[in-house]
Amino acid sequence: MPTGFVSEAVTQVDAFVLFVDLFFIISGFIMCYVYKESVATLPQYTTFLRKRFARLIPLHYAVLLLYLSVLAIATVFQVKINHPEAFDLSCVPESSVLDLCVQYLPEVCLQHAGVVHQR
Question: What is the pTM of this model?
Answer without folding.
Answer: 0.54
